[in-house]
Amino acid sequence: MRSEKSNRAPFGLKIAAAAGLAFMHLPILLIFLYAFTTEEKSYQFPPPGLTTQWFAVAWSRPDVWAALTLSVKVASIATAFALVLGTLCAAAVSQTRFFGRETISLLVILPIALPGIITGIALRSAFSIAEIPFSFWTIVLGHATFCIVVVYNNAVARFRRISGSLIEASMDLGADGFQTFRYVILPNIGTALLAGGMLAFALSFDEVIVTTFTAGQQSTLPIWMLEELIRPRQRPVTNVVAMVVVIVTFLPILGAYYLTRDGDQIAGASK
Fold first, then answer.
1. Is the N-terminal amide bond of 46 cis, ω within 30° of 0?
2. Full DSSP string of the chain
3. Radius of gyration of the chain (CA)
4. pLDDT tens digits, 131-147
5. What is the pLDDT of residue 77?
6. Phi-psi label, residue 135: left if phi above 0, alpha if psi -120 to 50, beta otherwise
7. What is the pLDDT of residue 5?
8. What tens digit of pLDDT does each residue of 156-194 get?
9. Disulfide check for 170: which of 21, 104, 148, 175 has CB 3.0–4.6 Å away?
10. What pLDDT is recorded for position 89?
11. In whole angstroms, what is the distance from residue 242 CA to residue 201 CA?
12. How far apart are CA 108 and CA 96, in angstroms?
């Protein structure tokens, strides 16, 4: 009985945890609430009335669809680049030994450690010096810089837990490099890559700072939302779109959590 009581969290700690959760999530609930308000020019609490008309308005606005389509395309292609390059970097760093390996690992994760404004300024300067016009592809390249880090971190952690004896046994049995990757390595790192891809997509989809410096005249969905808040026409429409962003980014994060929580179950990990 004593041990059970001693393992219980103090009441004050429970209150502090609840207050912290409320501080983080109440603003999100307010976004959801104001998506249904009847007031279109200001935020009044409580809302003067509730309506679902803004969902139809948001659905019919072509600028919303254009921004949403651009964000999905950018996030998808940036994630694809990140999966390829991040996996290759993780394999090289975790499976081989060479001079400067730790330095290269630091350089790979540096873009996500730097403030976004520094990365944005650096990319904008590089594109200007190279005389590369700002376009869809400059946004993709900007997002890929930090998406690679997300995939790399997931992949390198899983690579380091794969027993080298599995790869050696595959080679001894006559498998070539591609067969070893397909039948031995990929089944063990697949969930880590999928989780990393989901997180990279979510990170790219709602990115603002780097996009501001690399987008030119194009507007992704987060940039569109920022412009609508600065020059509002129909505020509740912005909240409706914000609900979509929350859902689109929450689902991949939730999926990544469930995919990686049992990541310790790796073939040969204990050998």
1. yes
2. -HHHHHHSPPHHHHHHHHHHHHHHHHHHHHHHHHTTBS-SSS--SS-S-B-SHHHHHHHH-HHHHHHHHHHHHHHHHHHHHHHHHHHHHHHHHHH---TTHHHHHHHHHHHHHS-HHHHHHHHHHHHHHTTPPPSHHHHHHHHHHHHHHHHHHHHHHHHTTS-HHHHHHHHHTT--HHHHIIIIIHHHHHHHHHHHHHHHHHHHHT--HHHHHH-TT---HHHHHHHHHHS-S-HHHHHHHHHHHHHHHHHHHHHHHHHHTTTT--TTTT-
3. 23
4. 888 888 888 988 888 88
5. 93
6. beta
7. 57
8. 888 777 766 676 677 667 766 677 777 777 777 777 888
9. 175
10. 85
11. 17
12. 16
Residue with tokens 């899983």: 158
Q: And the tokens for 129?
A: 């010096």
The structure tokens listed for 262 are 């049992």
The first and second tokens of residue 95, run together, are: 């499976």
